[in-house]
Amino acid sequence: MSILDSSFAPGLQAAEPAPGVLESIALLATVALPQIAVRLRDALAPEIRCAALAIFTEECTDRPRKLAGDQRITDLVGIAELDRIRGSHPGENRWSERAEIGGAPRDILALRYPPSNALLVLIEPRPAGGQPELVEYLWNLAANRIREKVADAPPSYLRESRAVSAERVRVTGELVEQYATSLDILLATLRSTQLDDAAARVAAIDLAAKTLVGLKTVDDRTNSIVEEPVASAFTRLRDDLRPLTTLSGVDLQFVEPPKNGRALPGEVAHAARAIVRGLALAMMEQEDIQRIRVQWDCDGENLLINVRDDARGGIDPSAAALDRLVRRVEALNGLIEIEVMGGWGTEVSVRLPLDAPPSDAADIAEWSLGGREFEVLQLLAAGQRNRAISQALGISENTVKFHVRNLFKKMGVGSRAQAVALAHSHGVASST
Length: 432
Prior knowledge:
Blueprint: H1 19-30, H2 36-44, E1 48-49, E2 52-56, E3 65-69, H3 71-74, H4 79-87, E4 94-101, E5 104-113, E6 118-123, E7 126-127, H5 132-151, H6 155-190, H7 198-226, E8 227-228, H8 230-248, E9 251-255, E10 264-265, H9 266-284, E11 291-298, E12 302-309, H10 320-331, E13 335-341, E14 345-353, H11 358-365, H12 371-381, H13 386-393, H14 397-411, H15 416-425
Parallel strand pairs: 9-11
Antiparallel strand pairs: 1-7, 2-3, 2-6, 4-5, 5-6, 8-10, 11-12, 12-14, 13-14
Organism: Glutamicibacter arilaitensis (strain DSM 16368 / CIP 108037 / IAM 15318 / JCM 13566 / NCIMB 14258 / Re117)
Keywords: DNA-binding, Transcription, Transcription regulation
Protein name: Helix-turn-helix domain-containing protein
């Protein structure tokens, strides 16, 4: 792909990019995802400055928000706010407005990346340059980088993603129950006839009722992020593969799963799409291929995938591309069977369990880590120092030190080396 691919920003082809732009493009094309929000904000600065930047992408199941900028804003940016902004302009890929974000009304510039529905929000933007198309181009490049990294996620990421997804559901459920109980008590108290100020009582009841609804909405939204209906997951797969039909001339046939099948954990849905894409690409390399049939099913405990071609059985099961897919399946405690039938084609069957293996999730859950603590641990496990962690998460170095001390206590270790070793033994590594 050219660095000025017309599918990103057609208006840029007529302009010769400055050296600084080329450097920004190179950085975004290779940056590790924990730093992508910081790098994108830096890359955009010559064209548009902002107080803070937020990326919202459900493809990263363990960290759907990626933040950079003023910590007083980023610490308050919530998933519900970002999801509300994304849903406020259906069908639009770029818009400006004043919206509630970071706990207050602020001016924003929002950009959507249609292939994954990822969202970029520039908070309190201040235009600085003369190429608005470059802003869109750099965002699309960053969003595409996220997609590629998720699709190529190593087995360690898949394991830790399942663990943190399970922990998020548990913690959110506990918080919702706690606050719902408190607000129920508040409502009962304020409904008491012993209160004299009726107007204040009515206003407080209304506020508390709205808060309960808001908590329930956040709970539903959190669970929807870590799970994806099997039918919509398959639809996304079909949309992803449709361009291959045009480019290759191979007839891709799809047998849809039951619409009422059990929802898929986010990391299973992402892995399943990546597995099928990899199989389809491997099969299309055969000279005599004409048709590929893709089928998903769900038995309540497993996602069942079947992919078959009509070639003459020219696939090598030991090829590097297939070995990588085998390792991806094994990372999810799944099973893959490849049957090459000489003269008849190749059939691949995959079984992916929908429930996470109990060991990793349970062991990590015993540490009772908060969301930010787990993010710090991931970067520690990747060998990052405090300053790099601070930049990646958009927090101060003192805050990083605070989280590291808490990690040591919760994990029962006395040094960074011990924490890293213990994290690695539990499959924790730097994530997307």
